[in-house]
Amino acid sequence: MKFRILTLILVSLSLFAQGQEKSFSLSPFEYRRDLEKVATSEGLGHIQLDGEVFEHTGESWEDIRLVKIDPDGSVEWPYRIERSSAGVVKTPSRLIKSETVSFDEQPDGAIELVVELTAKDLEATKLRINTPLRDFEKAVTIQGSADGKDWVALVDGALIFDRERYIDFRRAELALPQNNYRFFKVVIDQATDEQWSSVRNVTEAMSDLSGPSKEESSQVATRRFRIDSLAFYTAPVSHDPGRGEQVYPVAISSVMENEEAKQTEIYVEAGRAPLHGLTLRTSDRNFRRSIRLEVERGENQWRTLKKSTVYRYRIGTIDEQNLTLRFDEHRAARYRLVIENGDSPSLVVDEVEGRGPAYEVQFLTEPGDQFEMYYGAIAGSVERPRYDVAVLERVGRQEVAGESFQLGTAVLNEAFRQDAGPKKSFFEQGWVLWGGIALVVVVLMRVLYGTAKRIEKVSD
Questions:
Q1: For residue 159, how many other CB atoms are within 10 A of its CB?
Q2: What are residue 241's phi and psi, to 5 degrees?
Q3: What is the bridge-based pairing of β-strands 402-405 and 98-105?
Q4: CA Rg, the chain, in Å?
């Protein structure tokens, strides 16, 4: 009898183990999107994720499933999600540290400056001559040298100018040919010029014989070409396309002025896109403001994600700005930007631009394969799939033919059930497992105890 009970328990545990096996079900997923074409080759498939997917998926992409359509029965298809390229992104030019080695004034009125680049590993591709003067035109010659002794011509008689008297048009930058020189000799012709004053002195003399007469005189001022600095810059550098970023559509939903705290609160709808930067668009200038980025964590509850400063200076020859707030990659439906105004006028922010990495689904394909994607499960109803993606990682490091697929229009999944998810059958309940194990242990102990008693009686 006891062995029969033990056998029954073991069978129950076996059924429980079978119940633990993962079943393939699409009922937890609310949306379905077909891939707009059939695979034509063997290799690596790519699906670019878009705002529709971001808006309805969890933080770690746990509620995305790729399904391979098969007449004999569709199957869940392994995939991995990786950052992809959204096009080549260029970093701005960088200022190269330098110092003036010598200055010389030539007999013909030209000035000669020798500058050494102190950063040894950067190549100069552009020279900007920073000067506060307006209304000028100068010819500039530039030579390069590796040691400051032997010189090679790089630029001959190029013009820099400012046409403020007629139009807002200024050019004070010169492109340099490819080089690896550390010394540069810059010669500016006619560093001293004459400027006619814009005011004329007019006098009138009255005479009975000849009638009225006029006399005019003009003033001429000698002006020296003042140079604030010579700035050398590197060329823009392209990012690795695999680590590019793209612009995501975000929108300002409301703007509130907190007069008591002297703050501007800007509410931004982001659709859960993966962002690592927000850029303000404003026509205001000559300001510097502390700014705080907050993420919504509950109703009327906010958590600070980043603190920074934004500024724009545009006056005279100064044109500097930083209107971008950078932060660790984050996905949220809503953000709040809090700008500290103090006693200064509030900034007028026209729009906000979101930036972040592009992501794609990668999977293996064979000719004739057809797929569809499911996503959008209720939070906590599904777990992140654990696929064997070793081959995908290997393919990603090798030159293997790839094929891009476009997601079709999102439709509701007919099999979706709101109550689908982590509900477990009786045999899948944790207490059943541990209770069964405990019962088996008790039964085994009773069997062993009874056997030991019978052995004692026989020995007696």
A1: 10
A2: -55, -30
A3: unpaired
A4: 37
Helices (H) and strands (E) in the chain, counts: 4, 32
- Contacts of residue 13, Cβ cutoff 8 Å, sequence gap at least 6: 433, 436, 437, 440
Task: Quote the CA–CA distance of 84 and 240 in Å, as a whole number.
Answer: 10
Q: Which two tokens stand for residue 31?
A: 């949306």
Q: Is 379 helix (H, G, I), strand (E, B) or coil?
A: coil
Tokens 């290997």, located at residue = 394
For the residues 43-52, what does the mean pLDDT come to?
Answer: 91
DSSP state of 415: T
Q: Model confidence over 283-332: pLDDT tens digits?
A: 999 999 999 999 988 777 899 999 999 999 998 888 899 999 999 999 99
Which ranges constitute the DSSP H helices of 90-228? Answer: none
For 332, other C-beta atoms within 10 Å of its C-beta total 20
pTM for this entry: 0.55
Q: Evaluate whether 337 touches 323 at the Cβ level (below 8 Å).
A: no
Report pLDDT digits (tens) over 86-128: 554 455 678 899 999 999 998 888 999 999 999 877 899 999 9
Residue 115's DSSP bridge partners are 100, 184
